[in-house]
């Protein structure tokens, strides 16, 4: 009786195992047919992986067939096309090369020329925090009047959260029609602040000048826009009429701009026919930029630089340093030694693309290295914001004054 009972249990267990085995086989066959033999998503993916020699257009066609067959939502053709182009260009890994949509192109060109309707701020990308930081408000602008300060982080525009990845789009959103308003949420230290600012036509006159002690002239500007060189010359002549005997050019926190404007300013100080810049393209073809005019100033010059001194600012500082026409005081500059061109495409969109690197007159490369100061001077540790330094704490400016007074 006991033996018969054990046999019955054994037979039951074997039956269960057999059923499980058959079920596994049938399920495996079903999955195999679905994923391998069937008309499935994995079939498309397998086809894509099977031919690594496909060019980008063939791969995009394959992905498009997947979207057409499986994607649940509606397809916006323009967004799809722009996303593909933007991603393709971002794949270069160059932080200075970017796609500009047709809608943004006009605003982008206006920014480059220094004319636009908006609130009047210079913005930069803070790579450490991936946030958009206010470099400085333009003097007399709606932003300055509203209380926007250098070093503020823009965390949302009209209720839309933003990061440094959205720089071009956010710049467009901040601009708009004259008389309309834009809402900004600002992070200042630990504090979050809300601003509602009326847009105005921004008249850009970023070149400021004054006479300091001992007849030292002081000129400061935040970017190289259209007419910056002419404005610089005007300030220079005004200071000369006031008895200026030496000059400080403050390029701290100047993010650059139009290269020709920087070369023109260098030409006011450098000797005629001296080399100001070497431009080298991908084929090592070299263009030499020389000063074509006689200098209009012949006196001691000191240039102030810091880690935010970039691009065209470095061209000016590097040229005058190498030519022995200026001393550099402060800290090492940013190190952007490449030049971009803005190309307009047939559909109205554009691409800002890195086309050349530049070398100083001594053939010094600046990209990712920066301009080294002749006198390295750090700001005091208690200075919390290098974009807004009180003159009593400005050890870099004080050192320049000291050097010109000796």
The profile of the biggest β sheet is: 6 strands, antiparallel
**What's the helix count?**
11
Approximately how much helix is present in the residues?
25-40%
Strand-and-helix sequence, N→C? HHHHEHEEEHEEHEEEEEHEHEEEHEEEEH
- Helix/strand/pairing class, anyone? alpha+beta
Radius of gyration: 31 Å
Instruction: Please count the beta strands (DSSP E, at least 2 residues each).
Output: 19
Give the CATH level 1 class of the largest domain: Alpha Beta
Distance between the termini: 118 Å
What are the low-pLDDT stretches, counting only 5+ consecutive residues below 50? 1-5, 17-38
Tell me which CATH architecture of the largest domain applies here.
Answer: Alpha-Beta Complex
CATH homologous superfamily placement of the largest domain: 2-enoyl-CoA Hydratase, Chain A, domain 1
Average residue pLDDT? 86
Instruction: Identify the overall geometry.
Output: globular
Count the domains.
Answer: 3
Q: Strand content of the residues, in percent?
A: 15-25%
Give me the CATH fold name of the largest domain.
Answer: 2-enoyl-CoA Hydratase, Chain A, domain 1
Overview of this structure, please?
This protein has 406 residues and is of the alpha+beta class. The protein has three domains: 2-90, no CATH class; 116-202, PDZ domain (Pdz3 Domain), CATH 2.30.42; 208-405, 2-enoyl-CoA Hydratase, Chain A, domain 1. The protein is 36% helix and 24% strand. It has eleven helices and 19 strands. The protein has helices at 2-37, 41-50, 56-70, 77-90, 102-113, 142-146, 167-174, 228-241, 259-269, 312-322, 395-405, and strands spanning 98-100, 116-118, 121-126, 131-137, 153-157, 160-161, 181-188, 191-198, 200-202, 208-211, 216-220, 246-250, 275-281, 286-290, 301-305, 327-330, 338-344, 350-359, 375-376. Strands 3, 4, 5, 6, 7 and 8 form a six-stranded antiparallel sheet that branches. A six-stranded mixed sheet has the order 10-11-12-15-16-19, sandwiched between helices. The longest helix is centred in the N-terminal third of the chain and has 36 residues, at 2-37. The model is unreliable at 1-5 and 17-38 (pLDDT under 50).
């Amino acid at each position: 009786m006991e033996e018969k009972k054990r046999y019955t249990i054994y037979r039951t267990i074997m039956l269960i195992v057999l059923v499980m085995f058959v079920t596994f086989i049938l399920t495996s066959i079903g999955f195999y047919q679905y994923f391998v033999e069937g008309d499935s998503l994995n079939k498309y993916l397998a086809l894509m992986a099977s031919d690594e020699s496909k060019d980008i257009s063939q791969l995009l066609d394959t992905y498009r067939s997947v979207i057409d067959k499986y994607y649940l939502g509606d397809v916006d053709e323009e967004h799809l096309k722009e996303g593909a182009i933007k991603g393709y260009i971002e794949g270069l890994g160059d932080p200075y090369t970017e796609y500009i949509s047709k809608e943004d192109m006009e605003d982008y060109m206006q920014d480059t020329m220094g004319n636009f309707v908006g609130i009047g701020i210079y913005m930069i990308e803070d790579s450490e925090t991936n946030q958009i930081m206010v470099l400085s408000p333009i003097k007399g602008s709606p932003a300055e009047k509203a209380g926007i300060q250098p070093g503020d982080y823009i965390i949302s525009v009209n209720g839309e959260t933003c990061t440094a990845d959205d720089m071009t789009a956010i710049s467009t959103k901040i601009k708009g029609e004259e008389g309309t308003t834009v809402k900004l949420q600002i992070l200042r230290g630990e504090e979050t602040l809300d601003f509602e600012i009326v847009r105005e036509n921004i008249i850009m006159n970023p070149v400021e000048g004054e006479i300091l002690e001992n007849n030292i002239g002081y000129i400061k500007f935040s970017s190289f826009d259209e007419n910056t060189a002419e404005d610089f010359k005007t300030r220079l002549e005004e200071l000369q009429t006031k008895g200026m005997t030496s000059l400080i050019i403050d390029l701290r926190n100047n993010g650059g701009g139009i290269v020709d404007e920087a070369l023109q300013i260098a030409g006011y100080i450098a000797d005629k026919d001296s080399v100001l810049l070497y431009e080298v393209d991908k084929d090592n073809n070299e263009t030499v930029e020389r000063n074509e005019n006689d200098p209009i100033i012949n006196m001691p010059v000191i240039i102030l630089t810091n880690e935010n001194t970039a691009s065209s600012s470095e061209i000016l500082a590097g040229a005058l340093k190498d030519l022995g026409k200026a001393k550099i005081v402060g800290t090492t500059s940013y190190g952007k030694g490449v030049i971009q061109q803005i190309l307009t495409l047939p559909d109205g969109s554009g691409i800002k693309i890195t086309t050349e690197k530049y070398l100083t007159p001594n053939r010094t490369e600046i990209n990712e290295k920066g301009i080294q100061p002749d006198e390295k001077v750090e700001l005091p540790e208690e200075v919390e914001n290098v974009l807004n330094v009180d003159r009593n704490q400005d050890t870099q400016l004080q050192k320049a004054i000291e050097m010109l007074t000796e």
